[in-house]
Structures are given as structure tokens and as C-alpha cells.
């Protein structure tokens, strides 16, 4: 059975992790290949405007399959081969999601543990059921965040809170996650997907090409100098002014009607 259940509604794609029997683990299955393939498909399809990532069952994702980690005890597995396994394995997920130009919403339905938390941090917007919990728990099983969590989590919650979470491995609840900025909304479980879809629809109502450029600028702004970002912004703005969507948006505004994109 496929790890991801993919649904399409207009410009909105919903990817549901669908292996609740493994707690939607991201290793020891086809999760990596399916996430990478999905991102490649979306990058080729200009009609996609938003991606929602969520999960079936009571858990968002437990991250790595801890039982599967026992195979690393084998002396035949060298540190070099394990390093390469990470490069060719789970590390491909953050690279694929980071390369997406469309906005990505994580709808966190339950515990997001280890790489499961980091998967949520790979998304642009995170909303959660008020019963969800979050833990950067790698240290508790004697490993480090191998999937980019040390880069992702501080950008989501700040360095001090990221250090606290990574050094203790303790879980925080949805209220704490909201307070520290890890998520932007905490809602009752039954309202999670309606809230995510409503937010996605608001995003999808805007012009696709400009939305993708806006996301690129936001991402570049995390590491570029102000001067570099301003130069890139000027270039993107020149492109935006020449799009059919911009012409329609301005015309509709002047004519006091809803734009038709």
C-alpha cells in the first residue's frame, strides 16, 4: 500500500500519510520516494497552488522507525555507509520540500515526534489539533537530528527554545507550540482539516505565478542580505507586472469586481 494518499481539489493537493500501523514512520518504507516524487510532480505542474500534508490515524508521524534502527548494530554497516544511507534516504525529503515554490501547510493531527516534528517544520505553515504534541526527541534514542532538524527547528521557534527541545527531548503540547511560534493555530481535532482547507482555499484564490515568486522571496530573505533581496525583488516585480494575473487583478480592482484568475 502506498505511504501517501494523494487527493486533488482544484489547485489544492492534499497528501495524507497513510500508515497508521507504523505510526506513519518515515523510514523503513517508501515514504522518501513518495515525497520526492510528489514534490517533483508539483514542481512540473503550474496549476498546483497549495500542498497540504497531514496524516491518517491518531499520530502525525513518529519519525524514524526505532525498531528498524537495530540493524545499525551490525558491525558490517560502516559509518560511511550509514552516512550515505542518510544522504540517499530521509535527507531527500527536506531538500525536495524546500525546493517547492508553492506554499505547504502541515495539518498536524496528533503527535509529531523526531523526524515527524522536523517534517512539520519543513512546511511553511503549521496548524495543529489541540491534542497534538511535538518532540525533538532524537537524543532520547541516542542519535542526532539526521534530517535537517538542527537547521529547521531554530528557524521555527528560535535558537533557545530549539536547544531546550533538542537537549531534553521532551514533548510540548499544542498550547506551548502556539506560544513559541511552532504552529500558527491550534484548533479542535474535528476542525483541523476544514481549517486547513479553508486556509488553502484563501491562498489558492491568489495568482499562482506571483504566489510562487513570493515564497521564493521569503525563503531567500532568510539568508540573503537586504541589498541582494531588494535586487531579486525588483527582478521578480518586473516579471509580476507583466503577468496576465496582475493585469486582471488591477482591472478588477478598478472595476470593483472579483478578479478571474
TrEMBL record:
Keywords, in A-Z order: Lyase
Example GO molecular function: enoyl-CoA hydratase activity
Superkingdom, natural source: Bacteria
Enzyme class name: lyase
EC numbers: 4.2.1.17
Cited Pfam families: ECH_1 (PF00378)
Keyword NAD part of the UniProt annotation: no
Entries under InterPro entries matching the protein: ClpP/crotonase-like_dom_sf, Enoyl-CoA_hydra/iso, Enoyl-CoA_hydra_C
Listed GO biological process terms: fatty acid beta-oxidation
Cross-referenced NCBIfam families: PRK09245.1
Sequence similarity: Belongs to the enoyl-CoA hydratase/isomerase family.
Name listed for the protein in its UniProt record: Enoyl-CoA hydratase
Origin species: Bordetella pseudohinzii
Gene: echA8_5
Amino acid at each position: 500500500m502506498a505511504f501517501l494518499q494523494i487527493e486533488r481539489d482544484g489547485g489544492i493537493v492534499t497528501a495524507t500519510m497513510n500508515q497508521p500501523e507504523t505510526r506513519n514512520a518515515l523510514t523503513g518504507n517508501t515514504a522518501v520516494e513518495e515525497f520526492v516524487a510528489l514534490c517533483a510532480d508539483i514542481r512540473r505542474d503550474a496549476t498546483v497552488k497549495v500542498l497540504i500534508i497531514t496524516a491518517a490515524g491518531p499520530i502525525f508521524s513518529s519519525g524514524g522507525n526505532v525498531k528498524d534502527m537495530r540493524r545499525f548494530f551490525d558491525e558490517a554497516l560502516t559509518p560511511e555507509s550509514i552516512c550515505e544511507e542518510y544522504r540517499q534516504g530521509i535527507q531527500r525529503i527536506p531538500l525536495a520540500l524546500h525546493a517547492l515554490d508553492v506554499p505547504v501547510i502541515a495539518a498536524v493531527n496528533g503527535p509529531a515526534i523526531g523526524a515527524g516534528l522536523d517534517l512539520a517544520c519543513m512546511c511553511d505553515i503549521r496548524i495543529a489539533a489541540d491534542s497534538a504534541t511535538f518532540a525533538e526527541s532524537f537524543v532520547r534514542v541516542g542519535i542526532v537530528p539526521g534530517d535537517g532538524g538542527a537547521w529547521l527547528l531554530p528557524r521555527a521557534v528560535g535558537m533557545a527554545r530549539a536547544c531546550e527541545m533538542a537537549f531534553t527531548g521532551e514533548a510540548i503540547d499544542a498550547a506551548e507550540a502556539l506560544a513559541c511560534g511552532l504552529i500558527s493555530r491550534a484548533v479542535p481535532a474535528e476542525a483541523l482539516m476544514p481549517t486547513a482547507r479553508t486556509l488553502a482555499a484563501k491562498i489558492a484564490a491568489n495568482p499562482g505565478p506571483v504566489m510562487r515568486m513570493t515564497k521564493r522571496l521569503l525563503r531567500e530573505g532568510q539568508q540573503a542580505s537586504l541589498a541582494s533581496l531588494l535586487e531579486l525583488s525588483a527582478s521578480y516585480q518586473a516579471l509580476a507586472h507583466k503577468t496576465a494575473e496582475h493585469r486582471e487583478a488591477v482591472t478588477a480592482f478598478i472595476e470593483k469586481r472579483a478578479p478571474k484568475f
